[in-house]
Design goal:
It is a single chain. The protein has helices spanning 10-30, 34-57, 64-87, 93-117, 124-127, 141-163, 169-192; strands spanning 3-4, 132-133, 135-137, 197-199. It is mainly α. The chain has a two-stranded antiparallel ribbon with strand order 1-2. The radius of gyration is 18 Å and the shape is globular. The protein starts with a strand and ends with a strand.
């Protein structure tokens, strides 16, 4: 049986805030308002730091939903940022395609895990009920590194037109390193597979 939990925790609300900021950032980048975009990106980064800190230090704020919602918020934010920065000619198309392809596969895997861990009879109301906790996700170490590298590249790319270093060789090196960690992260999920999912038993 699944564990029934309260989804309305502070970390989960912070993750939802990050998801809400994603389209705002995308709009600002497309409009080339990079100064404000940097500020909004810093706010989104703060919500990411806070939700992890709170979940680690207050047991009542930790949830199975949060274990999926936090990385999902990161992926939505990163996907919108990379598409927008590619549109603004600040990040190359192949890198964005690589990142989004990996994230689409991971999100599909999360939905599949949700379906497989639901008790029978499986219904849509159960599937989309955030109070039903059926599995806890554990990201791999290289995946955490990859998320950090992707966000560093976003920050560097947002700052590039503000501080006039869009053609820097260091940005191009960062593109390559981001591609490497993205590929390594995808492989780590393929290799470790089931070890990244902890099925929750009812209490």
């Amino acid at each position: 049986m699944p564990q029934y939990e309260n989804p309305w925790t502070i970390p989960n609300m912070l993750s939802m805030t990050r998801i809400g900021l994603a389209p705002v950032l995308g709009y600002l980048i497309i409009e080339e308002d990079f100064n404000i975009a940097l500020g909004v990106f810093a706010l989104a980064g703060l919500t990411d730091l806070l939700d992890g800190f709170i979940a680690r230090n207050w047991a009542s704020q930790k949830s199975a939903l949060g274990s999926a919602l936090d990385p999902l918020a990161d992926k939505i934010l990163i996907s919108i940022l990379y598409v927008s920065l590619t549109y603004a000619d600040l990040i190359p198309v192949p890198l964005t395609y690589m990142i989004i392809s990996r994230d689409v596969m991971l999100i599909a895997a999360v939905f599949y895990v949700r379906y497989r861990t639901l008790p029978t009879p499986r219904t849509l109301s159960k599937y989309f009920n955030p109070c039903y906790a059926t599995a806890r996700l554990k990201p791999t170490f290289i995946s955490k590194v990859n998320t950090a590298v992707q966000l560093i590249l976003v920050a560097a790319s947002l700052a590039a037109p503000v501080f006039n270093y869009a053609d820097s060789i260091y940005l191009q090196i960062l593109w390559c390193f981001t591609a490497f960690t993205t590929a390594a992260s995808a492989y780590s999920y393929y290799h470790y597979g089931r070890k990244t999912v902890q099925v929750i038993k009812g209490r």
